[in-house]
Write a structure and sequence with these properties.
Layout: E1 2-5, H1 10-20, E2 25-27, H2 45-60, E3 64-73, E4 79-81, H3 94-105, E5 112-122, E6 129-139, E7 155-157, H4 169-175, H5 177-193
Helix pairs in contact: 1-4, 1-5, 4-5
Length: 196
């Protein structure tokens, strides 16, 4: 089965392909000749992932899924949340986003946070399907690790002593918020393609 992952983020694409393995083929926007910026104007993760998936499906008629992910920090009342990618501005710079987050958090002793991913799948059923992944953790005081992307250098998932950025892609693929959501999507696709 071939599905388009409606993202321009090569790291996300790599991660999803790694998680899906050989069970279904994930193609990029580039591979379906979609080169435009996808709309993300809704106030929720669910809304944004639906908006992106609908845009691609309606314009290119390819079954696809889109995700929206937010880092929600307890002491900042859930910020940056839906604005995670553009927390420090529309230029979407990870370094600036992290710097602003650490500045806003300051010396606050409550470092609790969670990563949340919503995946919306369109084109296989009459209605959109949603798959959610969530990982609780804490925010570090300084950047740690060189791999990953986004807020990975400052997020330690619960039960671990390493940030996402200190893990290999394979390690992160086993436990990340996106991994949980993609695995739920994969389980649905397996059930759907199993002989009746």
């Amino acid at each position: 089965m071939k599905l388009c992952f409606a993202t321009n983020n090569k790291h996300k694409l790599e991660e999803a392909k790694d998680i899906a393995g050989k069970n279904f083929e994930i193609v990029s926007l580039e591979e379906i000749n979609c080169f435009e910026e996808l709309p993300e104007t809704r106030p929720t993760l669910e809304g944004n992932s639906l908006q992106k998936a609908e845009y691609v499906f309606q314009k290119y008629n390819v079954p696809c899924f889109a995700d929206d992910t937010g880092l929600e920090v307890e002491a900042l009342h859930g910020e940056p949340g839906v604005f995670s990618a553009r927390y420090a501005g529309e230029h979407k710079n990870s370094g600036d986003n992290i710097a602003l987050l650490l500045k806003n958090l300051g010396n606050n002793l409550n470092r609790k946070a969670r990563f949340r991913t919503i995946i919306t799948l369109i084109g296989l059923e009459e209605k959109p399907l949603y798959f959610e992944g969530e990982v609780p953790g804490i925010i570090t005081a300084e950047l740690r690790g060189k791999s990953g992307f986004g807020y990975d250098p400052i997020f330690i998932p619960e039960g671990y002593d390493k940030t996402y950025a200190e893990m290999s892609l394979q390690e992160k693929s086993l436990l990340s918020h996106r991994a949980i959501a993609v695995k739920k999507l994969e389980q649905y696709l397996r059930r759907r393609s199993a002989p009746q």
